[in-house]
């Protein structure tokens, strides 16, 4: 009889924790939406050079796995995606110097999706790169 | 008795499988021409398959290389340009897999033709090769005149064209083309597709078997 009660209690606990974890907050749902859309756009616009795992290609195209680079340059990322970049940069301790083409056709929302995907999936960030942040970035650098 | 039959049929099955893989041969690609000739009064018909014609191009070290450098080797050829924003990076990433797998193996080489005859001078190709991670002469990057490069692209059955309306200014297909010792095309793989790249790696092994001494 005791065993039976223990079994019921354990089952109830499992169900309780399962529901707790399944109960996503709105933030998580929004993040998931940004990441899923970001991945689609990444495959279309970025993956050719930067690779499906953000691994880059040799010393031609930098990997997108340097979380410190993302942190230090967070405010510049929107401009890089939209307008490309040229000149030498250091990523993961390696020098890269290859012109990155602009992606003028991407909208503010597209850029927010892509950067959320890149910074949370390849980098270690756990926050959304919001459309407001993209607009502010581009405004501050006269790139809107 | 039953077990005996089972074991022997299994054994036979194994032999069949191993024989099959030994006999596996890649097709020769291209339209064959039937040529008849007379020899000692007998009519002989031969099927002649198209071959890659002889060529001479300037490589990343500003040295001329020719088809002779690929004699007694199999090789994989493709067409690209260094600042190609579309399919080239993926195609070169996939060809790099094969290069790294066979690095130092003199039975096979790699040949990338630049279709941007204006910008991709040897020094540009050299810098590109270095940064891609190619540090021996097993993978050649070559340039030539527009007529030469676009002409030989036709022989490899690869489409290449100058086109100002596409990103980068050049339109082309991302095929990796496998060539045998007789300069016949033995396989063509979409270099932007992972599955086809894996198929190429398998086919390279099959083709190498043909020349095993």
Structure description:
The complex is a heterodimer of chains A (144) and B (213). With 144 residues, chain A is mainly α. Chain A has a single domain, classed as Cytochrome c-like domain (Cytochrome Bc1 Complex, Chain D, domain 2), CATH 1.10.760.10. Chain A contains 7 helices and 2 strands, in the order H-H-H-H-H-E-E-H-H. In chain A, helix 2 crosses helix 6 and helix 6 packs across helix 7. Chain A is elongated and about 75 Å long. Helix content of chain B is 35%, strand content 27%. In chain B, the strands form 3 sheets. A 7-stranded mixed sheet of chain B has the order 4-3-7-6-5-10-11, with helices on one face. A two-stranded antiparallel sheet of chain B has the order 1-2. About 3% of the residues of chain B have low confidence. Chains A and B meet through helix 3 of A and helix 2 and helix 3 of B.
How do you describe this structure in short?
With 144 residues, chain A is mainly α.
Keywords:
heterodimer; A: 144 residues; mainly alpha; Cytochrome Bc1 Complex, Chain D, domain 2; two-stranded antiparallel ribbon; 7 helices; 2 strands; 58% helix; 4% strand; B: 213 residues; alpha+beta; Glutaredoxin; 7-stranded mixed beta sheet; 5 helices; 11 strands; 35% helix; 27% strand; globular
């Amino acid at each position: 009889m005791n065993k039976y009660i223990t079994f019921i209690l354990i089952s109830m606990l499992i169900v309780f924790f399962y529901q707790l974890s399944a109960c996503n907050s709105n933030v998580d749902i929004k993040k998931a939406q940004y990441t899923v859309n970001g991945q689609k756009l990444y495959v279309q616009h970025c993956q050719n050079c930067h690779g499906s795992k953000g691994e880059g290609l040799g010393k031609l195209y930098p990997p997108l796995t340097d979380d410190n680079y993302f942190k230090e340059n967070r405010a510049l990322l929107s401009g890089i995606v939209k307008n490309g970049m040229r000149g030498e940069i250091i990523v993961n301790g390696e020098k890269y110097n290859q012109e990155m083409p602009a992606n003028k056709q991407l909208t503010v929302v597209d850029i927010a999706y892509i950067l959320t995907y890149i910074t949370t999936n390849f980098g270690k960030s756990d926050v959304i790169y919001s459309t407001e942040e993209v607009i502010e970035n581009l405004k501050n650098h006269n790139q809107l | 008795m039953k077990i005996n039959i089972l074991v022997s049929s299994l054994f036979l099955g194994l032999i069949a499988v191993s024989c099959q893989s030994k006999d596996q041969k890649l097709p020769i690609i291209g339209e064959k021409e039937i040529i008849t000739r007379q020899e000692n009064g007998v009519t002989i018909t031969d099927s002649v398959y198209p071959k890659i014609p002889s060529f001479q191009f300037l490589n990343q070290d500003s040295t001329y290389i020719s088809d002779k450098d690929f004699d007694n080797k199999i090789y994989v050829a493709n067409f690209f340009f260094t600042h190609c924003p579309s399919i080239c990076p993926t195609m070169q990433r996939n060809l790099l897999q094969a290069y790294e797998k066979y690095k130092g193996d003199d039975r096979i080489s790699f040949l990338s033709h630049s279709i941007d005859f204006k910008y991709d001078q040897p020094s540009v190709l050299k810098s590109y090769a270095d940064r891609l991670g190619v540090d021996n002469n097993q993978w050649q990057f070559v340039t030539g005149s527009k007529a030469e490069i676009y002409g030989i692209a036709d022989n490899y059955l690869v489409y290449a064209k100058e086109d100002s309306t596409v990103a980068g200014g050049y339109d082309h297909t991302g095929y990796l083309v496998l060539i045998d010792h007789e300069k016949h095309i033995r396989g063509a793989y979409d270099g932007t597709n992972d599955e086809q790249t894996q198929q190429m790696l398998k086919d390279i092994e099959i083709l190498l078997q043909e020349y095993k001494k």
